[in-house]
Amino acid sequence: MALMETHYYSFSMKSNVTMNVFIPTPGSDGSITQMNTTDKYDYAKGIPVVYLLHGAYGDAFSWVRYSNIDRYAQERGIAVVMASAENSFYQDLKGGNAYYTFFTEELPKFIQNVFPVSRDREKTYVAGFSMGGYGAWYLGLSRPDLFSKAASMSGALDIAGLCKNRVPGNDPFPWEAAFADVYENGEFHLAGSRYDLFALYDRDKAAGQVPKLYQAVGYKDFLYQSNCYVREQMEKRGADLLYEEGEGAHDWNFWDRYIQHILDWLLA
Predict the structure, then answer these.
(1) Model confidence over 223-236: pLDDT tens digits?
(2) Which are the contacts of 80, defined by CB distance < 8 A and separation ≥ 6?
(3) CATH code, residues 2-267
């Protein structure tokens, strides 16, 4: 396996950025001998790639530190890209970093031109947990031309509901900077906006191109009821959604287990 810590200057971020990129390579199970070599990965054609997003307080090293993502990806032959987004909800922040532009424009182009990954939409995916669960669906639904599948675990998917019920000053998110254009007179108007996943889905469906969706949440997760509401709304819309729930909370024990489900679903 090849896990590379990559540093380069980002024009959209106007600074140097650090990311982790995992590229599967022939390992001990790759049937490599002096007499026989089985080529497991078609680098020339391009291997499937998933952009794996972190949650609040996380960064490009979260998945590397707390999960076995490298082993799971190696077993399945998929490339993984992990980059930092602060607590931005993967938005272009007013007066701050342009994370949405970075993740949907600059980063995919950089990865496709430097690493042996597929340029095919059908082999390009996005996934994440918590804030990154919202980010995965948001990036996927706002750029259905780029991502064919988007997966969320313990996702903060009902952004309007979460914003309405937040306790100002008691969470890490820069709400005013992330959603500045729908903030007016001290109130956010997220429902039905371009940040609302339901509105994005409806737009994609009307346009005839919608990514397939995956959603997982644990019974003990504080976002369990919120995720149930999102599932109901998506089922009413007839979304191509695979929903899973099970034992677990809002923690790495759950995410490390269900990322394996996600990788299998992505490659199915």
Answers:
(1) 999 999 999 999 99
(2) 20, 21, 22, 49, 50, 52, 63, 69, 70, 73
(3) 3.40.50.1820
